[in-house]
Amino acid sequence: MHPPASLIWFFITAGISIGLFNFVYFMEFLTLFGKNTAMPREAVLLSVALSVVLIGLGAIGASFHLGHKLRAWKAIRRFHTSWLSREAVFSGAYGFTLFLYGLSYYFNLSLPIQHALGVVTFLLGWLSAFSTAMIYASNKFVLEWNTSLTVLYYLDMYLMLGSSAFLALTFHYRPEFIPAYLFLTSLFISLGLAFRIAYNVRQFLIPRPTLNEALNLAHNRPIRVLDTGSTTDNYCTTEFYYKKGKDLLGSVLPVAYILTFVVPLFLVLYSWITGNYDYLFYATAFASLVMGSFLERWCFFVEGNHVQNLFYGLYPEEGYRLRKGYMERKKTVIRL
Questions:
Q1: Nearest Cα to 121, choosing from 103, 104, 96?
Q2: 317 domain residue, yes or no
Q3: Distance (Å, whole) CA 63 – CA 153
Q4: Within a domain: residue 208?
Q5: Coil, strand, or helix at residue 146?
Q6: More confident residue, 44 or 317
């Protein structure tokens, strides 16, 4: 699949926004149980303002993926059937309630109002993230994405981005929390690495559909592509298949692994084990994670193979091999 830069931009901005607010409000929420975990006022306001700006920039960037941008509001009309519609609704609601939470905190409204808005914003953020992940995980035409690993890994990457950003924040405002968030950040990055490896391994085990199955024909009548039906590139051969990306994937994916997992995990573990709490470590880990996530999302799209590519001779080779015994007894009936 062709990687849309606007959607990768939305992932990065929304991931940092939701992930950062997740930990900022979590520390505020613990104060309800008598814990001295609240961040200083300026830290909360700075985090909320940054989160609002990021989710706004993400929404603006994502709109460039739409063919008719003025019709974007119509996305909410399919809320009951479309994960894309749910993403639009939940993301917009998250940004709105996040702004209201920031106002309630700034004007020192009553704690019930602040925490009510905080809890609602917290839930809407994760509903937005889950809906975005399900857009890909529910796509049965791209088998690489059609797995629960897509959802687990997607949500964990939000936690990776959020915990690493919050770690840099605690260095300046609540350094006593650094060891705890070094542990959490290393945990989320380790889980992300495990999910990513499992995702890549699964790609070699997927039973690919064949042309016979696509045409609903038995396997005792082998079908092969003789003519793709198009001598020039068209929408189907450029948007559903990215040849240049396929050629670069073998070089980009290792770099994505290094920047997303290896570098941040090394820096965080080194700081945690040695007790050397250096802001440069956390800033570098966060920057590496952001750049790596951009490359990783690029690889995620390029790795996807739409089944329509079977008819253009662009599908993975194993998708053109017949599986003996499958549908052998099926009878083909032609009706006029």
A1: 96
A2: no
A3: 24
A4: no
A5: coil
A6: 44
Would 250 be classed as within a structural domain?
no
C-alpha to C-alpha distance for 90 and 13, rounded to whole angstroms: 15
Domain that includes residue 92, residue range: 1-138
Q: How many domains does the chain have?
A: 1
Paired strand residues for 142: 306
Tell me the whole-structure pTM to 2 decimals. Answer: 0.90
Answer whether residue 25 shows pLDDT above 60: yes
Nearest to 286 by CA among 160, 191, 172: 160
Nearest Cα to 147, choosing from 303, 280, 2, 13? 303
At 179, list the tokens. 């060891």
Contact at 8 Å (CB) between 144 and 303?
A: yes
* Residue 209 to residue 226: CA distance in whole angstroms: 18
Say how many C-beta atoms besides its own lie within 10 A of residue 233's C-beta: 10
Give percent above pLDDT 90 in the chain.
68
**pLDDT value at position 97?**
97
Which amino acid does the sequence have at 189? I
Q: How confident is the model at residue 81 (pLDDT cuts 50, 70, 90)?
A: confident
262 within domain boundaries? no
The pLDDT tens digits of the residues spanning 91-106 come to 999 999 999 999 999 9
Note whether 1 and 306 are within 8 A (CB): yes
- Type of residue numbered 245: G
